[in-house]
Amino acid sequence: MIKFLDLHKINNRFREELQASFTQSLDTSCYILGPNVKKFESDFAHYCGTNYCIGTANGLDALTLILKGYIEIGKLKKGDKVLVPANTFIATILSVIHADLEPVLIEPDPNTYNISVAGVEAALTEETRAIIMVHLYGQLADYESLETIAKKHNLLLIEDAAQSHGAISNSKNIKAGNLAHAAAFSFYPSKNLGALGDGGAVATNDKELFEAVSLLRNYGSNIKYKNEVIGHNSRLDDLQAAFLSVKLSSLDSDNSRRRFIAKCYLREIVNSKVNLPSYDESKNHVFYAFVVEVENRDAFINHLNKNGVEWLVHYPVPPHKQEALKRFSHIKLPITEQIHKRIISLPISPVMTDEEISTVIEVINAY
Ligand SMILES: Cc1ncc(COP(=O)(O)O)c(C=O)c1O
Predict the structure, then answer these.
(1) Which residue, among 116, 92, 97, has the nearest Cα to 106 in the 3D structure?
(2) pLDDT digits (tens, 9 = 90+) for 226-258
(3) Which of 186, 235, 314, 345 has most ligand 1 atoms within 8 Å of CB, for mutation?
C-alpha cells in the first residue's frame, strides 16, 4: 500500500528533537505565548523575509484576523467586497464571512487552478476593497498581475499561503508570505510545514497590522486583564511552536524532494487518459498536492484502489455547493464545477521512496 501521506514517517525523522522540545517545555512550563512562540515567530518571519510574524491557533484564524485587523486599523469596513477564488478550501471564504465582509467568488485559470486575473478584473466594482490570492496546491498565483491591479485600484492584496510554505517567486526571488500586504499560513499536520496539531501564522511587513493582529489573537490584550479591542483566543500553542521551529530547518529540503517527485511524475507518467498539471520546473511550486485530471474519476479511483495507491480529492465539492454556503449556490461557476468533478491528488511527500514513486508511475501508466 502506498500511503497518500505518511505523517508518522514524516515526523519520526525529528523524533529526538521533538522529544527534547517536549521535555524542555515540560521543564520550563511556559505553555501560553511562551519563549517557543516568540522564537518561532522570529524564525518564520526571517524565513519568509517579512518584518513580522504572529502565531495563531490555525490557518482559518490567521486569515480572519488579517481581515479583522484591517477593519481595526480602518483599511476595511463591514460589508466591503473581497475577491476570492471559487475553487479553494472553504476556509478562505469562511474567513471573509467571519470578518463581516462579502466574498465574491472568482473562477480559476484552468491551467494553474489559481485565481484568474481576467476574472478578477471583470469582477471589480466600487465596493471591491481586497483580493485574497490562494497559492493553490503549492503553486504561486500570478501575484505580479494581481499586485498591478491592487495598486491601480487601491486594493489590499492578501496571500492565503496555507499550501505554499517556501514557494519562491521566479522574477523577484521572494518567498510566499512576502508577496503581498499580508499572508496567512496554516500548519495543519499535512501541510509542507506541519505541526503535530493545529497551528497558523500571519506574516506581514505592515507594523500597524502586526500590532492589530497581535492584539486580536490574544483577547484584544497586550497587558494581562487590559482589553483594548474585541479579541479572540487564537494563540499558537507554545509546544507546537517549538515543534515547528525544529521542522522549519527541513522545509527547503522537503520541498526539493516534493519537486523531484513531481518532475518524475511529469516525465514518466505517459497516459492520454491522465492530464498532468502545468509546471515550469521552478521553485514557485512546492507541490503540497500533485493534482491530475481524469475524465472518469470513479474508474481511475477503482484502478488506484485495486493497485494499493492511496489518493485524495482536493476538493470533492466546491465551496459554493456546500450546504453552509448555499446562499452562493445559484452563482454560475462552470470551470470550478468542472474541475471538482475531474481532479484527483496523487501521493507526494518528502518521505516517499524512489521505489514508491516508480510504483505510482507504473500503476498510472497501466490505467
Ligand atoms: C487554502 C487553505 N486555506 C486555509 C486553510 C485553513 O487552515 P487551518 O485548517 O489550519 O485552519 C487551509 C488548510 O486547511 C487551506 O488549505
Answers:
(1) 116
(2) 999 999 999 999 999 999 999 999 999 999 999
(3) 186
